[in-house]
Design goal:
This protein has helices at 22-33, 75-100, 134-145, 148-157, 201-213, 222-243, 263-272, 292-316; strands spanning 2-7, 10-15, 41-43, 67-71, 104-107, 113-116, 122-126, 161-166, 177-180, 185-188. It is of the alpha/beta class and 327 residues long. The protein has two domains: 2-74, Ubiquitin-like (UB roll), CATH 3.10.20; 106-327, no CATH class. The strands form three sheets. Strands 2-1-4-3 form a four-stranded mixed sheet, with no helix packed on it. It has a four-stranded mixed sheet with strand order 7-8-10-9, covered by helices on one side. It is globular, with a radius of gyration of 24 Å. This is WLM-domain-containing protein.
Length: 327
């Protein structure tokens, strides 16, 4: 097979056996252009909606005589961009540290304080314009961005997110959330698969806490689990303090406090979400003469196990750890 691939105005005449796979073509192009395989994007007519790397060139829709346009930065350009981004973050960090001296303090439960700083928030909210009912999607995203408990943990941990937007279920069916470049953007699956409504708010907010953890840790290792557990615990503690009338956060939405269905649910959230270290000794199966404390322990244990399983499933549906699922 012979075809032409053009990158930044330079044409490359390609001649490969028809049984060549798409991944082998990417490796060949990397040798020619110095553009890493995972950063190459090929544009051509007849391209299938989802082309797997192990497909042969004809199976991927490539034919002899075809003209293909390739997009992607070279290794040198990537290094330069990363250097510029690192410098930008360094300057921003210095600015934030200098501004911290003048920021307002508000009291939190106990003796700690949290900085009410305008940088630690979601700076832009954008629903996907090509999806139906974008106005309702914007309201949903705004509710997340103005959630007082979420703002509380963002202020406490100095989290800044450039863009909060959504994931289209049909475009990324295996993802519930994605954090790009440690907070440059966070994308969340807020719609149902059938586009007939929106997913439960508390489910999406748990995904948001998970993705905020990726502002600090990229992989789902023990460091990640510890911080994710801490964020979920702080959200639960904050909302309990608001309910008890002991805490407010200027700039946050008041009166929109999540109340767990039971006190046991709240305890399980504090100790389990994200891999907390709280351990229960398994109790015997329920019986008619089961004591109140034994029943409480059994229900709490079952609730904790359920939340652990849900968190494991969330990790499997997160595109933020390892290679981006959107590449």
């Amino acid at each position: 097979m012979e075809f032409t691939v053009t990158h930044k105005g330079t044409p490359y005449q390609i001649s490969l056996p028809s049984e060549t796979t798409l991944s082998a073509l990417h490796e060949h192009l990397e040798e020619l252009t110095s553009v890493p395989s995972d950063h190459q994007k090929l544009l051509y007519k007849g391209k299938k909606a989802s082309v797997k790397a192990d497909r042969t060139l004809p199976e991927a829709g490539i034919t002899s005589g075809m003209k293909i346009q390739m997009l992607g930065p070279s290794s040198e350009e990537l290094a330069s961009m990363r250097g510029a981004e690192d410098e930008k973050r360094r300057v921003e960090r210095i600015k934030q540290e200098r501004a911290a001296k003048a920021q307002t303090k508000v009291r939190t439960p106990g003796s700690s304080t949290v900085s009410n700083h305008p940088s630690y928030r979601f700076h832009r909210i954008e629903p996907l314009a090509h999806l139906p009912n974008s106005s309702a999607a914007r309201q949903y995203l705004m509710r997340l961005a103005e959630d007082a408990a979420i703002l509380h943990v963002m202020q406490k941990h100095n989290f800044s997110v450039g863009l909060l937007t959504e994931l289209a279920p049909h475009e990324h069916p295996n993802l519930l959330g994605l954090n790009t470049n440690a907070g440059q953007s966070i994308r969340l699956r807020i719609r149902t698969n059938a586009y007939d409504g929106f997913r439960p708010y508390m489910d999406v907010r748990r995904v948001l806490c998970h993705e905020l953890t990726h502002n600090v840790w990229s992989d789902h290792d023990n460091n990640f689990k510890e911080l994710n557990s801490q964020l979920n615990r702080e959200v639960a503690q904050y909302e309990r303090s608001v309910k008890d009338g002991t805490h407010t956060l200027s700039g946050g939405t008041q009166g929109d406090v999540y109340e767990p269905s039971t006190q046991l649910e709240a305890e399980a959230q504090e100790y389990v979400l994200g891999g907390g270290a709280h351990v229960l000794v398994p109790s015997s199966s329920a019986s008619e003469d089961e004591s109140r404390e034994e029943r409480r322990r059994r229900i709490l244990e079952a609730t904790m196990n359920r939340l652990k399983k849900e968190e494991e499933e969330l990790e499997q549906s997160c595109g933020s750890a390892g290679p981006s699922a959107l590449n």
